[in-house]
Amino acid sequence: MNGLNTTTLKNQLTARRERLQETIKYVPDPIKLFALLQQVDSALERIDTGSYGICDVCHDPVEAERLLIDPLLTVCLDHLNHHQLRALEQDLEFAIKIQRNLLPENNLTTKGWEFSYNYTPAGPVSGDFCDFIKLDDGSVLFVLGDVSGKGISASLMMSHLNALIRSLLSSNLPVNEIVTRANRLFCESTLSTHYATMVFGRANAEGDVELCIAGHNPPIIINDGQVTSLSSTGLPVGLFCQSEYGLINVNMQKGDSLILYTDGFTEAAVNETEYGENRLKKQILKSAKSNAQKITEDLITDHKNFLNGTTRMDDVTIAVIKKI
Ligand SMILES: [Zn+2]
Question: Which DSSP string do the residues of 253-283 spell out, in sequence order?
Fold first, then answer.
């Protein structure tokens, strides 16, 4: 049964069925709605007989993530008809557009800082997100994260989280407070199957950096030839509504860099050997004297060399923030 809660599902479907019946009374041409009513009744019947969530064609389970979004589905992804496939393609094209528009300007330079990133989805859309936002007081907010899962639903959750964070910026709170609020709102609005790890920070012109790390891979700081990893200050966003988040304060000097990355970078593997944090640190040290754009490019080149043609399984995002 795909691990779906059928009692909840049945209650939801029953409530929606009542709405549907009400609407049918007032619609002049209700033929399509009657067809929909039949589909709802059929789903309810399948829940009662225990055959819900099984593909009509191959009898394998239908993907649980898709059923949560559309509980009336009766076939798995492999057995969509022509119209269903076309609709899915259109959704995907739309999701790609939304996502491209969310990415920040690359190689941004502000007073005291350079910001570069590389964003490479494994498929057409990504669950990773990255944003740099210039504030009126001259400081810059930066965020890099990774929503659990893949495909359209992860990418839409990513857009949702991105919008949520942006809407909280005007509050002028410390970054950990913004994450605490974003977590609460994300928990209340999201499908229970999704959560996100992220690093959220603010850098001012004097080199002071505030960081909140929500269950994300340790960001790496290089200063004065020393490489340090920073630990998490809280749980991933979307796991528990009441999570609190801590704050890390660091002062970065001219020439120092902060490197953020998603697990797709360090966990990319060839013959079960991962790229890993150690190789990442070594590569960062090699490029330490370059500008942010060159450090980013060198990291991506080294990653490609490591993979040597092996297909990446996950989205990869890195961001380099350099004090100049
Ligand atoms: Zn099937």
Answer: -TT-EEEEE-HHHHT-EETTEE-HHHHHHHH
Q: How far is the CA of 56 from the centre of ligand 1 (A)?
A: 7
Residue that the structure tokens 């990255």 belong to = 130
Cα–ligand 1 centroid distance for 203 (angstroms):
50
> Could you tell me the fold of the domain covering 6-78?
Four Helix Bundle (Hemerythrin (Met), subunit A) (1.20.120)
Q: Give the global pTM.
A: 0.80
pLDDT digits 0-9 by tens, 142-156: 999 998 877 777 787
Asked whether the beta carbons of 230 and 209 are under 8 A apart, the reply is no
For the stretch 64-107, pLDDT in tens is 878 887 899 999 999 999 998 898 888 888 888 887 888 899 99
Q: Which CATH number fits domain 103-323: 3.40.50.261, 3.40.50.720, 3.60.40.10, 3.40.50.920?
A: 3.60.40.10
